[in-house]
Design goal:
The chain is α/β, with parallel strands linked by helices. It folds into two domains: 17-178, DHBP synthase (Alpha-Beta Complex), CATH 3.90.870.10; 185-273 and 310-371, GTP cyclohydrolase II (Rossmann fold, 3-Layer(aba) Sandwich). It has helices spanning 18-33, 55-64, 75-81, 104-111, 131-140, 170-181, 237-241, 249-263, 274-277, 280-291, 296-302, 313-321, 334-342, 362-371; strands at residues 37-40, 45-49, 70-73, 93-96, 124-125, 146-151, 167-169, 185-191, 200-206, 213-220, 229-234, 265-271, 326-330, 346-351. Helix 10 (280-291) crosses helix 11 (296-302). The longest helix is centred in the first third of the chain and has 16 residues, at 18-33.
Length: 376
């Protein structure tokens, strides 16, 4: 679960302004293109993801660096490629990089454990103060959280190599997931009769300046009930759409809709947080690691992600907009209960929602019970 969420929703005065939000979105787009950005902090950093960097990006790092560059990784990923112990409780681990920088393909192999691991011997370096924001940028871009970073030279913006680079405050990147949820707004509301719930409608939500949409599948009139049934469901392309047997997402989604139709009302919050918040591509990478023997928790960590990266302020904001401050939560995950309660939602009861193993997902379900504490 995302352990960095505050206990209460952000106050209106703490919301990201439109210019701040646009700057973060531009930084995300630049990261996905492999273009370095500067993180404005007490000691600014120039950073670029290892997954997308090209020769031009490395050239800009070399031209603008005011000190030797470092390779920033989550502790779980750094531990796998270092020949020495690391502090697994650390937010970020920094590794020394040669100058001129080692080749792009080596950096990508070091970032991605699904690739062949033929790596030089890395050694530890001191992580810069803005390193957590650098990894946050990689995660917001749904890339592997592995960043090349260096303090920028004084006057970098006036140099020919730095004039066109984007600068974004490091603090804005760290605050973005929490604050953006409070700007969520309803953008569409339409009747969508479903096989299992003819009296259903789809309500679409979008946050300020944000292209990602989250959906609410509303069955009947849940606002007429004191504590309607609610399912918080993270999208699963492989399970929901393709009917993958590796997980239980598809049966959980369809079962929730059918259960709500039987009760006459309910809401499924369909969140755009694939793979417990790591994104579809990274979920597929995690599947590769599972095929090599890791469980779903350790597979995520091998990629540098937490076991669960979801932001439940999104769900809480949707419930408030739908006029549902008090609910019965359809879940087997006790951490979901505590996460929504921490976001200000009154949980009247937990309603069990489990399905039998199918012969393929047996170990996956066992891991959910053993490692996540799911009540199966």
């Amino acid at each position: 679960m995302n352990n960095h969420l505050p206990i209460h929703p952000p106050e209106p005065q703490d919301l990201l302004s439109a210019p701040q939000t646009r700057a973060v979105h531009r930084a995300i787009a630049e990261a996905r293109r492999g273009v370095p950005v500067v993180l404005a902090a007490r000691r600014p950093l120039i950073v670029v993801p290892a997954e997308t960097v090209g020769a031009e990006g490395l050239r800009l790092i070399e031209a603008l660096a005011g000190a030797p560059p470092v390779f920033l990784l989550a502790a779980s990923r750094a531990a796998a490629i270092l020949a020495q112990p690391v502090d697994l409780a650390a937010t970020v681990i920094a590794l020394k990089l040669a100058s001129p920088l080692i080749d792009i393909e080596t950096l990508r192999r070091a970032a991605d454990p699904t690739l062949e691991q033929i790596l030089p011997e890395f050694t530890l370096a001191t992580a810069p103060a803005a390193a957590p924001a650098a990894l946050a940028l990689g995660k917001l871009a749904r890339l592997l959280p592995a960043m090349i970073a260096a303090p920028v030279r004084a006057g970098w913006a006036s140099l020919p190599a730095g004039g066109d680079l984007l600068s974004v405050p490091a603090d804005d990147l760290l605050a973005y997931p929490t604050n953006l949820a409070a700007t969520l707004m309803r953008v569409a509301d339409v009747q969508i009769p479903l096989d299992d719930a003819p009296d259903a409608r789809l309500v679409a939500f979008r946050a300020l300046d944000q292209g990602i949409e989250h959906m609410a599948i509303v069955v009947g009139d849940p606002a007429a009930q004191d504590a309607p049934l609610v399912r918080v469901h993270s999208e699963c392309f492989t399970g929901d759409l393709l009917g993958s047997l590796r997980c239980d997402c598809g049966p959980q989604l369809r079962g929730a809709i059918a259960r709500m139709a039987q009760e006459g009302a309910g809401v499924v919050l369909y969140l755009a947080q694939e793979g417990r918040g790591i994104g579809l591509i990274n979920k597929l990478r995690a599947y590769t690691m599972q095929d090599r023997g890791l469980d779903t928790v350790d597979a995520n960590r091998a990629l540098g992600w937490q076991a669960d990266e979801r932001n439940f302020f999104i769900a809480a904001a949707m419930l408030r907009e739908l006029g549902l401050p008090r609910i019965r939560l359809l879940t087997n995950n006790p951490e979901k209960l505590s996460a929504l309660a921490a976001c200000g939602i009154d949980i009247a009861a937990r309603v069990a929602h489990s399905f039998s193993p199918n012969g393929v997902n047996d170990e996956y379900l066992a891991t959910k019970a053993r490692r996540f504490g799911h009540l199966l």
